[in-house]
C-alpha cells in the first residue's frame, strides 16, 4: 500500500539554525500539507500547497517558514532560523484531490536546543 | 467555520468494558469527520471516517462511530476495551476556507485502560 514517508524521523538542531524537513508524497497526489504538534498538544494546520503555490497558511506559518517541491517529488518544509518553540512533531499529509482524504506521514520530531 | 470539541481530555476504562469517546462538531455544511489514534511517540493512524454515506461507520480494531446530525456529534465507541487501545484519540473535521481543504483537530482524549 502506498504511503507518505518523511525524513529524518528525528532532527536535533541548535537555536538559530536552519532545518529542512522532507516528505515524499504518494505518487499521484497533488495536494500537500504540513501540520505541527507541540508535545502534549493538538495537531495544528500549518500550510497547504498545490500547483507549486501555497493555497493557505495559518498564523503559525510566518516568514521563518517556507515550503517547496524542489524536484517534483519531495515536498519540503524549511525553517530558516529555528526557535525553541519550534520544537514539535511535524506531519506531512498528501491527497489526490482538493476534497480527497489526506494521508499522513509518520512525522519528524524536531528538537531545538 | 468548522470546529471540533472533544468533551473529555482523559477517559479511564477497565479492560473488557465499553469505550465511549465524545466529539461534537460545528460545520456550516455537511462535514467529513474522522477519528485518529496516536500511540506514544508514534504517528497518526486513521481509525475511521465519515463522508456522508452511512451514518454508522465501522473502523479498525473494533471501533465504530455514529454521525448524528441533530446532535452534531460523532462519538467513538468500542464494545470491549483492550490494553492495546490505550492511546491518544483525535476527532477531526474537514474544513474549507479560501478554497483549500484542511483538517481541524480536536484537543484529543487520552484513553487509559486499566487491567
- Relative helix content of chain B: under 10%
Largest sheet of chain B: 6 strands, mixed
Specify the oligomeric state. heterodimer
Overall outline of chain A: globular
Mean pLDDT of chain B: 91
**Cα-to-Cα separation, first versus last residue of chain A:** 37 Å
Explained architecture:
The complex is a heterodimer of chains A (113) and B (115). Chain A has strands at residues 5-7, 10-13, 19-24, 31-37, 43-50, 53-57, 65-68, 75-79, 88-95, 103-104, 108-112. Chain A has 113 residues and is mainly beta. The mean pLDDT of chain B is 91. Chain B contains no helices and twelve strands. Chain B has 115 residues and is an all-beta fold. Chain B is globular. Helix content of chain B is 0%, strand content 57%. The chains are: A mainly beta (113), B mainly beta (115). At the A-B interface, strand 4, strand 5 and strand 9 of A face strand 11 of B.
Q: Could you give a short description of this structure?
A:
The complex is a heterodimer of chains A (about 110) and B (about 120). Chain A is mostly beta strands. Chain A contains no helices and eleven strands.
Q: Which helices and strands occur, and which strands form pairs?
A:
The complex is a heterodimer of chains A (113) and B (115).
Chain A: E1 5-7, E2 10-13, E3 19-24, E4 31-37, E5 43-50, E6 53-57, E7 65-68, E8 75-79, E9 88-95, E10 103-104, E11 108-112
Parallel strand pairs in A: 2-11
Antiparallel strand pairs in A: 1-3, 3-8, 4-5, 4-9, 5-6, 7-8, 9-10, 9-11
Chain B: E1 3-6, E2 10-14, E3 19-21, E4 23-26, E5 33-38, E6 45-50, E7 56-58, E8 64-68, E9 73-78, E10 87-97, E11 100-105, E12 109-114
Parallel strand pairs in B: 2-12
Antiparallel strand pairs in B: 1-4, 3-9, 5-6, 5-10, 7-8, 8-9, 10-11, 10-12
What features would you highlight for this structure?
heterodimer, A: 113 residues, mainly beta, 7-stranded mixed β-sheet, 4-stranded antiparallel β-sheet, 11 strands, 50% strand, globular, B: 115 residues, 6-stranded mixed β-sheet, 0% helix, 57% strand
